[in-house]
Design brief:
alpha/beta, seven-stranded mixed β-sheet, two-stranded antiparallel sheet, 32 helices, about 5% strand
Length: about 750
Amino acid sequence: MSKDQVNSGLKSFGKRFKINHSSILIISALILILFIAFTVRILPMRWEIPTGQIHLNEFDPFYQYSITNYMVKNGLFSPYTNHWINYQQWYPAGLDMSQSLPALPMTAAALYQVVSFFGIHVDLMAFCSILAVALGTLSCLILYFIGKDMGGRAVGLFAALFLALAPSFLQRSSLGFFDTEIPGMLGLLFFILLFLRSMDPKRSLRGSLIYSVGAALALAYFIAGWGAAYYILDLTALFAFVLVVLKRYDQRLLINYSVTMGLGLLIAIQVPYIGLSYLTSAPLIPVAAAFIVLLVAELLRHNVSAKTKLLISVATVTTILASFISLWYFGYLGSIAGKFSSVIDPFIRAASPLIASVAEHRISAWGNLYIELGISILFFLTGLYFVLKNPTNRNIFLLIFGATGLYFGASMVRLLVIFAPAFALLTAMGIIGMLKPFMTLLKETPNVATKAKRKLVRVSKEYSSLGILLIFILLMTQFAFSPQTGGIPRAYASAYAPTSLSSAGLPVLPNEPLPQWLNMLNFANNDLKSTDVVVAWWDYGYWLSVMGNVTTLADNATVNATQIENIGFVYMGTEEQALKMLSTYNNQGNIKYILIFTVLYVVPSQTVSGYYESIPASLGDDGKFVWMADISGSAKDRLVNDGFMTSNSTWTNRYSFGDNTGNGWTWNEQGINTTIYKLLAATEQAFTAKTGGIVIPSSDEVTLEYFKPVYISGIDITSLGEGTLVPLVGLYEIDWNAYNADHPKR
């Protein structure tokens, strides 16, 4: 082959795929952004390597992992076909694992089997941990294409970069965060990309239908992956309704909406956990109502009189309202789950300590919003202006997406992740809109001539360069310096943190992994039986059942509020009350242990030279007891009627046990008789006795009647500098013989 033939072939290849300098720059920039997105998400591995295993993060990912593990061993559909009941969680009834969303564990199990087929042997937990990073990076790539469709390649690049570094999304797609937000974000972004492309008027009907089918598949995946799928369903219904109101309806909208929603829901309801009842849930009413409105809009497109249009419109509204009222009256309309209704009305959470106790369910404080948005809020506002100025169908969708995403993100901290892509797109639109006139001036030929009559001089290139430099500096303060995080880059601050297990459950940045929880779980795995029930606050249920291979009364889900109230009562009641409650679960004698987690803050003693004092840091159960009290107190009437609360030992909230005096929590007489106080104090006393410290006055000498220490992880720590945080995880055996001797059955 001659040199001319090779050159000719390369040129034709370049023309075919439109390879030019601009494309090379765009592709290079996109690869760099994806590399950044992947790198910042995998930073926590720095703490995992010394432990010898890559762990999952937080609590809920362990639930997803347990389903994935079951699918790998028994088949992708096995949790549903076998109707798997996990008896290591929610003793004694167990947890019905078939009542779970399959998208994430099924995706992970399928990909893991593909990797294993090619002879690559990876620990499943490590695979799931890294998969969260990979899918989070993929979401950034999808947003690039959405931004490209909305405002060009530059908008796509900026949007992908902003999403890659958005704190809310970064935290929920970093190493180990193997949870429902991962398939949720993938489904959300794929749906937006494909659905908006299906509405492109320049596209053929065949191409439009193909994109509609793709959007339906993405919608079904979203519904099967994250409970927040109600959001995209109602967002799309609202979008269709707004287009009708703005007189932007066309026949393709009806076709695309019908195919996407109809096929997507048809596929989704095949999932056993979702089922037909999903179609009669209250959030689906807007979807059906929007479909009826589109049908009416199609009917009104034809030449009909004004009187007929009015009659049809009134009849439509009447039909929708009558249908809604009838379904509700006859009980066919499902209600909205508590946590979803509390998103719409966040004040509902104030009446539910159980919901309020979960940090990610709280209302976003201004600090959360400022860390999330930063100085980029200026570009977000300008993006709103430019989008309003050019109200295309895509821009109308983006406006609704941004407004609703901001509302729900402000309503619940966890949902800031939904607002992240909308914020990224609008901010990118704002930056490009502001840069465009400056870039245009820079490209123009210099023109120094003035207009003689009005003596006006054109803005010079130097001023244009200054404007671009100013925008660059603002972005640098957003991503490189971040004054709102003390000068540390936001991405670094959000991602460079160990997994919860490797930091022993502490919200701190240690120099090396903290092994207390890992040691406790290893002890449970090696020294306890899988049928042994360990009583613990519900946060730690997944860790104990998955990593510790023991049975628990509750996990980190809210599937049984009554049992969570009972666990709160166990800790806040006296030892006698605690065991009286536990005896109702102890027909088989399996409830053998109770666990306590506390964190001590070590300071030099002010009374004894050469010694130190340990003070509760309120980072473990020494801080969570307030929720144990509030949640169990909300069940006061039931507990009194069942004979567990006595007339001289009742409570409705934390303030029955003490008060915050400004120098920390001060326990009263009822407080120092609680099970949790005694367990906390006994654990601290064991630690100080072992390491030569002294006990602070608030935990002076307590004696446990029915609990015997078995293993206290962290008690052997030796490096105790000033200000050291010391996590302690204590496991105590329940002395049922002593309790039964003191309380013989009648």
